[in-house]
Amino acid sequence: MEKDLFGKALLDYQNGNYTEDIITSTNISDADELPIPYLFRSFKDMPKLEQKALQLCKGSVLDVGAGAGSHSLYLQEKGFTIKAIDISEGAITVCKKRGIIKAEVKAILNETQTFDTILLLMNGTGIFQELQQVAMYLKHLKKLLNPEGQILIDSSDIKYMYEDEDGGFWMDTTANYYGELDYFLSYKDEKEKPMKWLYLDFNTLFTACTSVGLQCELITEGAHFDYLAKIY
């Protein structure tokens, strides 16, 4: 996020300068609008998976990739001790403007505190970037858990995006894992440097967790190949 266009968009909305939305695309999907107001949503406007994750939170909470801070704000208002982190300076500025007490510009791999709950929502596996890095990230997250701590994470199995009209799949078996995508973001005619983004099917996440000594439980599934998992 060299230009922090995501942060600029959030700041524009927070400061009353909202005129257009973020445009996203991937190497397997066309351009799509990400409505900025959606990133400022209240609990009642969140998807069921996110609502369930917030209801399962306990103790001290780390909100990873907090964005505009909607999850953190809800939990803070419920009396939780919450820390919001994001690599976007603009996002963290917005979190603070919205009243989140503890918000820091930080990548998860630089976090050293321990927590009872770690939240990774809005395709939380995305920050792993590539399948080969999943175990490394999980090992680090494991170090950040207090005894009896939990990680609440969501993602989607995007295998459906490779389905042809006959119900078959056109995936290249010699290529990387099908959930590894190149993610493109633009805002107000500026383009962000492309980044890697990982969608992980539950079975692959389960296997990765087992390999590093973690338990992984499927909590609930959404209507469109998405799911919420608890890791502990």
Short description:
With 232 residues, the chain is an alpha/beta fold. Helix content is 24%, strand content 29%. α1 (5-14) packs parallel to α4 (89-97).
Helical content (DSSP H or I, runs of 4+):
10-25%
* Percent strand: 25-35%
Overall mean pLDDT score? Answer: 95
The run of helices and strands is HEEHEHEHEEHEEEEHEE
**Rg value:** 17 Å
Overall 3D form: globular
Structural class, from helix and strand content?
alpha/beta
Strand order of the largest sheet: 5-4-3-6-7-12-11
Which runs of at least 5 residues are low in confidence (pLDDT < 50)? none
Your description of this structure?
The chain is α/β, with parallel strands linked by helices and 232 residues long. Helix content is 24%, strand content 29%. Strands 5-4-3-6-7-12-11 form a seven-stranded mixed sheet, sandwiched between helices. Strands 1, 2, 8, 9 and 10 form a five-stranded antiparallel sheet that branches. Helix 4 links the parallel strand 4 and strand 5. The protein is globular. The two termini are 30 Å apart. The mean pLDDT is 95.
